[in-house]
Specification:
Helix content is 29%, strand content 27%. With 117 residues, it is an alpha+beta fold. The longest helix is centred in the first third of the chain and has 17 residues, at 16-32. The chain starts with a strand and ends in a 5-residue tail after the last strand. The model has no long low-confidence stretch (mean pLDDT 94).
């Protein structure tokens, strides 16, 4: 079964095009190092819930859009190897990407797949 890294974050609407450019560049690097899939999605039907919701989880304001994304790998071991290479890759450490979103409000984690249909 595959292994998945999942992410939810908020990006200011004024910086969404910069985020998309960053995501395209990052996705190419992840794929170059062996990721199976790299997917980034902008929120379209995600109401602000009374108790829980995607926007509430990342404390999204009215001027931000929620991003939901995931990266798929063959295994946890492969993921650990790829992430180490990506984090060391100088192409992704540019100053132009430093202030696109607030990483402190990003939710992320690794997930072991138990069902694929």
């Amino acid at each position: 079964m595959t292994y998945v890294d999942g992410f939810v974050l908020a990006v200011p609407k004024a910086k969404i095009e910069a985020y998309k450019a960053m995501a395209r560049a990052a996705g190419a690097v992840w794929k170059e190092y062996g990721a199976i899939d790299y997917v980034e999605c902008t929120a379209e039907d995600v109401p602000y819930g009374e108790l829980t919701s995607f926007p509430r989880a990342v404390q999204a304001s009215e001027d931000e859009i929620v991003i939901f994304s995931w990266i798929t790998y063959k295994s946890r071991a492969q993921r650990d190897d790829i992430v180490a290479k990506v984090m060391a890759d100088e192409r992704l450490g540019g100053e132009e990407w430093k202030d696109i979103f607030d990483g402190k409000r990003m939710i992320y984690g690794g997930f072991e797949t138990f069902l694929e249909l």
